Structure formats: structure tokens, C-alpha cells
């Protein structure tokens, strides 16, 4: 009898626990985050173990991403060997990953471009540029001979299929830009031009007009930018063979990023040796409007292409901000978003006040150190954002690094951003 009573009591308690509480907690108190519409959940790029250097990304006409980088095994900041990796999605929608080269340690930059099933990769290995090409959207690859011995390269493929190489050759303390354009698609013969004077800067970037964006119709087909003492020099073309030089008076750049806001070409660059961004814009048929943007000492804001939503006329900068809040000089890195109205593009305070308390809507997977950086490429209303960060094991902070088996490690993360949704995302 007592046993039956205990069972009955236990059943009553269980029913009470399962019954809904008589409160308003049954009504949802939050709605699904609008961020789910603005960007995809970040995912890891690649499976290798080691340190990633020289990351570059391109989007083809289908919006598929293609990425190149150097992966090295590294112990106590000493690399033992390197490999050049390229990966992406074929026109059939299949993922590919290829090791184009492996050898002695190399930390040079890479570059990549893709159009109409043709993909080209450049990498600086042992101080020299080497080129590879695929003509079947990444399935098979072959090495190309560079028309000029160079130490830095950027790449583009014109709508008619001709490749354009921007090659920097070093002579003493100066770099000379050679632009090599294919005479016809895939011909392997090149027409060379030297439209710009030599410069002490090895910083070079390429921008192509986005044919999906009708608001860019009045801009040139291709622009090549190189740093110079006290600013930036540009080579501008509509046909890939005739080049018009222009200069922007700002400051000696550390990094360059080119983009478009409507019918204006925009150049954003970091200033060498200072925590300053410079922003310049022009229709390229008129003079350049230049603005100096001061960044706070607590945040390092990197130069990246601007994102423009024509429906709301909003301009956005998505970059990696680094917060120095960890020991041994390391940092916590996050992707930061800044937004201004297009008419405030050159209002310095509109940008600077957002960096005082940065907005970080996209969460990174790890508290990376200061080596993290974002690579942003756009096509139409889509942006592809890739970032790389190094991080150290926590036991490095407590015991000798050698005893901990300390090996520097990188991870690359990637997300796809829908620009109109990002422009409408509610700020905190």
C-alpha cells in the first residue's frame, strides 16, 4: 500500500513538472535574427594544418568563389615547407582543391581571377612571380610562362577572355609596372605597356567594372592602382590596350582597395606607418575628392572595398578590427561593419564615430591574434568575405613554448554576404 502511494506521488510530481507554467513564457520574446538573411554562417575554408599566407579570392560570373593561398608548416615562427593551394567551385557546381606547387618556405602574395571557365593564379615564390592557369573551371591546371620577370603580380580577365597581368619588377629600391595584355584569348602572346613612372611602392591592386551593376556603366573597364610616395597612381583602360594615367594626392599607402559607389570609383588605402585610412573617389573624368579618416588607437581598421546598396544608397565597409585585450601583444579579431549614407561618403566623422564602438555582427570562430585580415570581393549584390587568423594554444601562456609543442596555426573562414540585407540590418 505504501509502495503504491509513493508511485502515485511520483506520478503527480512528474505531471506537474511536464505541465506548462501559468506565465507568459509560452509567447516568444524574440524574433529570428535578421542577420540570417544578411550573411551565411561562417565556415572553415580548407582542411590543411599550418599557417596561411597571401590569401586571395575571386568571384566568377556565376558568383562562385575561387581562392588561392600559401600554406606552410611553421614551428616557433620558422617555416619548414610551403604549398600553393587553389580551391573553388567548377561551373558544374562541384568543389575542387588543387596543390599547384610545393617546396621551400615562401610567404609571398598570391593573386587569382576567374571568368568563363578560365582561372588564373599568380604567386610570388622565392622572390619571383609564377603563373598557373585552368581552362576547365579548375579541373586541370598548367603552368604559364610570365612575359616579364617580376616580383609582384595582379591579374584580370577581360569580358572578351583576354588576360591582363599587372607585373611589378624591382630595380634597386624602386618598382616598375608592366601591364601585359593578351593579344587574343588564350593566345599566350602579350602586348606590353608601361604607362606609369617607377615608384618605391610594391603595393598594387586591380579593379574591374561589374557588368551586373548598371550603375557602374559609365566607369572604365579596368583600373590598375600602384602606390607611390605621397599617394596613388592609376592606369585606366576601356579596351585593355590603351592606358590613361592619373594620380591621387593622399599619403604613401600600406594597402590598397578599389571599389565603386554608383558612378564613382573609390580608392581606400591605409597610410604607411600611421593608423589612418584615406578615401578618394571620382568619376575618373574629373578630379579626385580625398578624405583622411583617423582610426582610434584601440582598433586597427583595414582598407577593404566598399559595399554599395543602391536601393537604400548606403555605403558599407566590412573589415577586420583588432582589439588588443590579450597578453604578449596578441589581439582579439572580429569583423566590424561601418555604414554611412552615400552623400556622407566623404564626411570623416560619419565613419570615425562608428569605430569608437565597433559593430561586430558576424562572429568569428576563434579569438584570433593580430595576423587576422579580411579579403572582400563583390559581384552584383553579393559579397564574398574571407578572413585568416593565427591563434596560439592557451598552454603557451603558462609553460615554455617548446615543451608545449607550440606550432603556429591559421584557420581561414568564409561567409557570403547579401548586400541589400546587410544595409538593412538593425544596428545595436
| Average pLDDT level | 83
| Shape designation | globular
Number of strands: 28
Please tally the helical runs, counting DSSP H or I stretches of 4 or more residues. 4
> What is the multimeric organization of the chains shown?
single chain
How are the strands ordered across the major sheet?
A: 1-28-27-26
| Secondary-structure class | mainly beta
Helix share of residues? Answer: under 10%
Keywords: Signal
Question: How would you summarize this macromolecular structure in one to three sentences?
Answer:
The chain is mainly β and 428 residues long. The chain has helices at 2-18, 35-38, 348-356, 419-424, and strands spanning 43-45, 51-59, 65-75, 78-89, 95-103, 110-115, 118-125, 128-134, 142-144, 152-157, 163-171, 174-182, 190-193, 204-208, 222-228, 231-237, 244-249, 253-261, 264-271, 276-282, 289-294, 306-309, 314-323, 332-341, 359-362, 373-379, 382-391, 409-418.
List the helices and strands and how they pair.
Layout: H1 2-18, H2 35-38, E1 43-45, E2 51-59, E3 65-75, E4 78-89, E5 95-103, E6 110-115, E7 118-125, E8 128-134, E9 142-144, E10 152-157, E11 163-171, E12 174-182, E13 190-193, E14 204-208, E15 222-228, E16 231-237, E17 244-249, E18 253-261, E19 264-271, E20 276-282, E21 289-294, E22 306-309, E23 314-323, E24 332-341, H3 348-356, E25 359-362, E26 373-379, E27 382-391, E28 409-418, H4 419-424
Antiparallel strand pairs: 1-28, 2-3, 3-4, 4-5, 6-7, 7-8, 8-9, 10-11, 11-12, 12-13, 14-15, 15-16, 16-17, 18-19, 19-20, 20-21, 22-23, 23-24, 24-25, 26-27, 27-28
Amino acid at each position: 500500500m505504501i509502495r503504491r502511494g509513493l508511485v502515485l506521488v511520483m506520478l503527480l510530481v512528474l505531471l506537474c513538472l511536464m505541465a506548462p507554467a501559468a506565465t507568459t513564457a509560452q509567447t516568444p520574446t524574440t524574433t529570428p535574427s535578421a542577420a540570417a538573411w544578411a550573411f551565411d554562417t561562417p565556415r572553415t575554408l580548407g582542411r590543411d594544418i599550418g599557417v596561411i599566407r597571401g590569401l586571395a579570392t575571386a568571384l566568377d560570373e556565376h558568383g562562385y568563389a575561387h581562392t588561392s593561398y600559401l600554406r606552410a608548416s611553421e614551428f616557433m615562427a620558422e617555416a619548414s615547407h610551403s604549398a600553393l593551394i587553389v580551391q573553388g567551385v567548377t561551373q558544374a557546381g562541384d568543389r575542387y582543391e588543387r596543390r599547384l606547387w610545393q617546396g621551400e618556405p615562401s610567404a609571398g602574395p598570391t593573386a587569382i581571377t576567374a571568368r568563363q571557365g578560365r582561372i588564373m593564379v599568380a604567386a610570388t615564390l622565392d622572390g619571383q612571380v609564377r603563373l598557373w592557369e585552368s581552362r576547365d573551371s579548375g579541373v586541370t591546371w598548367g603552368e604559364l610562362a610570365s612575359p616579364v620577370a617580376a616580383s609582384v603580380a595582379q591579374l584580370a580577365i577581360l569580358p572578351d577572355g583576354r588576360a591582363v597581368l599587372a607585373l611589378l619588377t624591382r630595380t634597386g629600391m624602386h618598382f616598375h609596372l608592366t601591364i601585359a595584355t593578351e593579344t587574343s584569348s588564350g593566345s599566350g602572346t602579350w602586348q606590353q605597356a608601361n604607362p606609369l613612372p617607377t615608384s618605391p611602392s610594391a603595393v598594387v591592386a586591380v579593379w574591374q567594372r561589374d557588368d551586373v551593376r548598371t550603375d557602374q556603366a559609365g566607369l572604365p573597364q579596368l583600373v590598375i592602382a600602384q602606390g607611390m610616395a605621397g599617394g596613388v597612381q592609376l592606369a585606366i583602360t576601356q579596351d585593355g590596350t590603351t592606358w590613361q594615367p592619373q594620380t591621387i594626392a593622399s599619403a604613401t599607402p600600406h594597402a590598397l582597395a578599389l571599389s565603386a559607389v554608383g558612378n564613382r570609383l573609390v580608392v581606400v588605402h591605409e597610410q604607411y606607418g600611421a593608423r589612418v585610412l584615406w578615401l578618394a573617389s571620382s568619376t575618373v573624368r574629373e578630379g579626385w575628392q580625398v578624405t583622411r579618416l583617423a582610426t582610434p588607437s584601440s582598433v586597427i581598421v583595414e582598407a577593404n572595398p566598399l559595399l554599395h546598396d543602391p536601393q537604400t544608397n548606403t555605403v558599407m565597409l566590412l573589415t577586420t578590427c583588432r582589439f588588443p585585450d590579450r597578453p604578449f601583444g596578441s589581439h582579439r579579431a572580429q569583423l566590424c561593419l561601418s555604414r554611412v549614407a552615400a552623400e556622407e561618403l566623404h564626411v570623416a566623422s560619419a565613419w570615425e564615430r562608428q569605430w569608437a564602438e565597433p559593430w561586430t555582427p558576424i562572429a568569428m570562430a576563434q579569438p584570433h591574434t593580430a595576423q587576422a585580415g579580411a579579403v572582400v570581393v563583390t559581384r552584383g549584390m553579393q559579397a564574398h568575405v574571407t578572413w585568416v587568423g593565427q591563434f596560439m594554444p592557451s598552454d603557451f601562456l603558462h609553460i615554455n613554448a617548446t615543451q608545449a609543442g607550440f606550432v603556429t596555426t591559421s584557420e581561414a573562414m568564409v561567409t557570403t554576404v547579401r548586400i541589400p540585407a546587410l544595409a538593412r540590418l538593425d544596428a545595436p
